[in-house]
Design goal:
Radius of gyration: 18 Å
Number of domains: 1
Order of helices and strands: HHHHHHHHHHHH
Shape: globular
Oligomer: single chain
Largest sheet: none
């Protein structure tokens, strides 16, 4: 597969995601809560796409026709919820590499839905991904850091996002970008209203220190998700997009080590041994990605 310039978009999204995740983690430490953060992020991406509807001349369809955007909205919503739960319970350098399994899941879903097939090297990639997740559990800190629960939540997020990506690849070309994504993300925003009863306090109760983290974190994650769905349309291959996007596994470990202290993130203090295991796990994830690419 030849590298397309458009694949730089998911590469940029990989970096945006990690910085946004660090900001969300910091906001959570200030008591913002995952539900309020998720609500703000999902409405941010809904508002980003509303102008697209008018600019692209999107036409209203009969209500029954919106079943497809509603299904992908539900999967996207589920992926978001699992992501924020994983970030609340565990470390960014665990959540992000585990979510790298999304590329293997996309391949499997593509095969099941007859959008593609799964060759032998992709199964080998799945085994490497499993070994990578095992390495993320090592280091003697798994109990205190809730690594098992974090990995499970991150995997559920990857599965939900992965199935949504494959369905979007299948359905969006028929609709067109301007007709599909605005209603889809409006559905996501409406679904997010279900979080409101779980808010620890109203949004207006957040102080300036909390907004300093939750606002950029929510916006960066919204931009990340918008960039990925656009890349799916531009590139035309959910597998190719997710291969590049999985580099966020390495980005997460490197950025936690280099700039995590900017976000008052203490994962660097876990010690060199733990982060080395996590780095090797992330490297195995990249090896799995290369197998899929080849």
């Amino acid at each position: 597969m030849h590298f397309q310039p458009s694949l730089l978009l998911p590469l940029a999204c990989a970096l945006i995601y990690v910085v946004g995740a660090l900001a969300v983690r910091r906001a959570s430490a200030l008591g913002v809560g995952v539900w309020r953060t998720s609500f703000v992020s999902n409405w941010a991406i809904a508002l980003l796409f509303v102008p697209v509807w008018f600019r692209a001349g999107g036409q209203l369809q009969p209500p029954a026709d919106y079943a497809q955007p509603a299904v992908t909205a539900l999967l996207f919503f589920g992926g978001q919820a699992f992501t924020f739960l994983a970030l609340r319970h565990g470390d960014v350098s665990v959540v992000t590499p585990v979510m790298g399994t999304k590329v293997i899941l996309v391949a499997l879903f593509s095969s099941l839905l007859r959008v593609g097939e799964v060759p032998l090297q992709w199964w080998l990639g799945a085994l490497l991904s499993t070994a990578a997740i095992g390495l993320l559990h090592l280091g003697g800190e798994s109990h205190r850091r809730n690594v098992g629960r974090t990995a499970l939540l991150a995997f559920c997020s990857a599965a939900s996002f992965g199935l949504g990506d494959v369905l979007m690849q299948k359905w969006v070309p028929v609709w067109g970008l301007g007709s599909y994504f605005p209603p889809m993300f409006l559905f996501v925003g409406l679904l997010s209203c279900a979080f409101m009863p779980f808010f620890s306090a109203p949004l207006r109760a957040l102080d300036a220190a909390a907004w300093r983290w939750v606002a950029p974190g929510a916006l960066l994650l919204a931009l990340n998700n918008a960039g990925i769905v656009l890349a799916l349309v531009i590139v035309g291959s959910a597998t190719a997009v997710n291969i590049v996007y999985s580099v966020r596994g390495l980005f997460s470990v490197l950025l936690v080590w280099l700039i995590g202290h900017w976000f008052t993130n203490d994962e660097k203090q876990l010690g060199g041994r733990v982060l080395r295991f996590r780095f090797v796990g992330a490297a195995l994830m990249v090896a799995a990605i290369i197998l899929v690419l080849v």
